[in-house]
Fold this protein.
Amino acid sequence: MPNTLKLTVSHAPFWHNGSSISSKSRNILLASLLAVVPGCYQYGMAAVGVVTMSIASAIIWELLINFISRRPISVGDGNAALIGMIFAMMLPATTPWWAVVTGTFFAVVIAKEIFGGIGANPFNPAVLAMTILMLSWGNLFDFNAALLNYSFNFKAVYPLVLSKSFGAHAVEPFALMDLLLGKQIGGIGSTCGIGLILGGVYLILRGFIRWEVCFSFLAGIIIAALCFNILNPELYAGPGFHLLTGYTMIGAFFLATEDSSSPVNFIPMLIYGFLGGALTILIRNIGTHIDGVLYAILIINLVNPLLDKIRPKAIGKGV
Amino acid sequence: MSLKNELKFVYVIAIICLVIGVFCYSSLPAKSPEPPVRLMFKTVGGNVLFDHQAHGDVPGLACEDCHHTYKKGETDVPVSCETCHKADSKFVSALGDNGKFDHEGHSDDYGLSCNDCHHNYYEEDGGEPQPCSDCHEAGVVDDYMPGRVQAFHKQCISCHEDNGAAPGQSDCESCHAPRKTVEAFHGQCIKCHEDLHKGPSGSDEDCKKCHGF
């Protein structure tokens, strides 16, 4: 006797379970606060200014494009505010206001609305905007130069610059626990590893992001970094260092997991994440850029539609 | 939350964020602390992050030791890093007699007198020369005076070519790529230290002896 699967389907009316895009946006915003609040504490009111300006300008850009294109007002879903928040998390606290406003324009108008709005963007809007800004005004995002006026009780050098320029032994003074607790310079909401992990785990448990993408991204980082480290331990830092520096954690939990630009099936999600992690290490170790997370995510966003061609077999037989 | 309330909620958030953002940017502008915490020097060998605060905390090191004409509330041009950070005053690999600076070329071929560079020239010791950047200005190139980049480039590349050693003029990436520039300049400095067994060496893990991190 063949093993049959019984599917129970009920009739209408159906009861909405209360989930909505706005609820998802609110939850991701709340989770991001776990990393943003320590960042604001570290950099003071300058960081608060960047974060609030980014959120406000992202909402205003979406509102404006709604009016111009005569489409229904969509800012209520909170997605624009979320893009503003994620974008601000990657910025240094000294970012000038015009760069924040330009960045949110690229994120909301160019990377999202032009493609048709929420769900239609092929790239993560915040990542695309950040990349455009970094290529256009690279000196603004040199964290060593941007944060010259801050006095910290830890080594105030961007760890990835040290590893890129002087090899693995130059980053030995960075204790992994310190990096995890955010004792490093970087983006406002990108350095507090513990906050990003807690926020990410909360989102995974609530089902707002997929664990497959996060964990395979981190696995890609670990395996690729380990290979380089084994190959030449003097030149290439170990996986622990790469996990806790740069945009790795925000990339794994907040950037690579964006709905529209990531796959929906199990195997594609694993490949997508792993590829992102491995590419990050390739760019960091043998590429010309200091951090590879943003470029790696843009590349996996690009291959996302191809990966989603790997689908499970449909139940039943085709006629 | 209904759609109407969601919209109102976002409007309120946008207004609050805008007010706080404008307040932070307009009322709390970033001020450079005095004295500075850290400084970024842009050099031909790459950016150098100078920890001013750490130098200020060194016991026995007074402001006047670097800022020779220092007066409180005023700034002046400090002495160069090399004044303190050198392996031995007789051996300056980049610019000394045994180094790569073409002294003969400057004095004979370009018709410069000693005083053109050594403003306080003495027969006995020659006197300290002026910095190269006094003549070779950044971004200024003409038929008679190479710009700063061209001058420093010539300083490196001519030696590579004279010895038939890579890289040559067509092999830009051998120097101008991540780590490569650092390796070239690092080799130039560290060789002297190793020959003299003084200061940091290639095996010394204390990078901050030179790089101030």
